[in-house]
Amino acid sequence: MSLLMKLQGYLRSLRQYLATPKGSFDARDYLKAAGLMLLSMAALAFVVKLFLGEWVMKGIGIMGGTFDPIHMGHLLTAEYVRDAYGLEKVLFIPAANSPFKLEKKVESAEDRLAMTRLAVADNPHFEASDIEMRREGVSYTSDTIALLRARFGPDVPLYFITGADAINDLPDWHHPRELLELCHFIAATRQGTALDLPKLRAFFGALCDAHIHELATPELEISSTEIRARIRQGRSIRYMVPESVETYIRKEGLYRCVME
Ligand code: DND
User: Fold this and answer.
1) Which residue's alpha carbon is nearest to atom 12 within ligand 1?
2) Ligand 1: distance of its center to the CA of 100 in Å?
3) Which of 100, 120, 182, 219 best tests ligand 1's pocket when mutated (most atoms within 8 Å of CB)?
4) Which tens digit of pLDDT belongs to each residue from 98-123?
């Protein structure tokens, strides 16, 4: 029996159900009516996915960083991008061993993750992820994005958020082409930083314009380096980091003796 005939059968049953005094309605009719309802719901879901797919599938932002410590500049940029791109959420991923900072002395991965968790706690769209903390070795972004792509599936757009200064070095990252094929990059442009498009186009070709996007974000000239220096000098870091992060830094005595 064709699908159309089955559907006509179900419709007949439904009409019959509505027209029949309820006492004479038997179990098979109820089953048919339930089947019809399920079929209608499946058809509706299919139509929504087909026509509203782009709208339904909101993107996921990924803010990777050493976060030593995380500060208001990171948070403001992430929120600005989230709002501009209508992202469902932004994952903050502290790097266990940041590829370009392997020689650098940084606070422990646990402390940086704890500060990241505190910093994002009051934003329902933000989430701290320990995905890089659970891996041994260098925290290559290409490995992280491959894992996230597998977790979220092929259709959900992934947006890696980064400062424009960092994105100009993208050709030097681990497996840069594979990485850029798997996700989009949002380059948050700040004062004094601009995308080096000729360099990026020469390296990535058409993928550059398709997957690298520039977004002018408000400038908050804060850096983790400055925050660490101010802590060593006994100066205030209020309003540079969330209050909860400052409390954690003071409580754990971070950055007091870490020399640059
Ligand atoms: P950083 O060490 O620069 O992080 O690392 C950024 C991300 O790039 C991490 O996920 C790294 O694993 C990844 N990376 C870098 C190099 C090579 C590879 C991967 C590879 O796979 O080969 P920071 O904590 O210093 O900064 C985090 C982000 O915040 C950066 O994108 C930075 O540009 C940005 N930022 C600001 N944005 C707005 N306002 C401010 C900012 N200060 C830093 N004031």
Assistant:
1) 98
2) 10
3) 100
4) 998 888 889 999 999 999 999 999 99
